[in-house]
Amino acid sequence: MRNKTGKIFFILLLLTSGNLPFNVYSAAQNQANDQQASERPDDEMNTSDSATPSNAPPKIYKVVDENGVITFTDKPQPNAEPLSFDGQTQNVVKAAKVTPPPPAPQKAPKPKYKVVIKNPAPEATIRNNLGDLTISAAQTGAPKAPIYRLIFDDAPIASNSSGIFKLSGIHRGAHTYKVELTNNTGKTLASSPVQTLYLHQASALINN
What is this structure's pTM? Predict the structure, then answer.
């Protein structure tokens, strides 16, 4: 080792004095580099060769102790089992299937009832000394309500299923009336417009 070192220094000394050709200088330089590489400690060489790239993922180890407890660590230990992970591994959670709510039930359209008064005509004048008169009504369209109810001078006075009302003992003068349609519980389903009639009676003071 000392002889080789002495030769190298001798050659370098000659080079610095400019007495050797260029090819000799190159050979000497290469020999010096080889000598330095051979004198480098083995640990240093192994460390540089086995260095882990900076962009490499850290290694994870699985350690199971004597009690069966599992530990994961990035430091190698005795009886540690290295784990490998796929670089494309992703945590994927499947979304739960949501059952769409049932469609809201469609409300059946409300039936439209309609009733009209056929007799007497609006503002009609009725002459009857006994105060008798007849009011009749009818339904138009469908469906049909089961009951007619007569409202006379703002008061319900009769109900039936025919729509024909015969009244007696009505006093002379103006009277209002209308006919309603009801169900079996008495709920009003439809109503005719309010009309007015005039009942005339002969006066007892006038000879007929």
Answer: 0.49
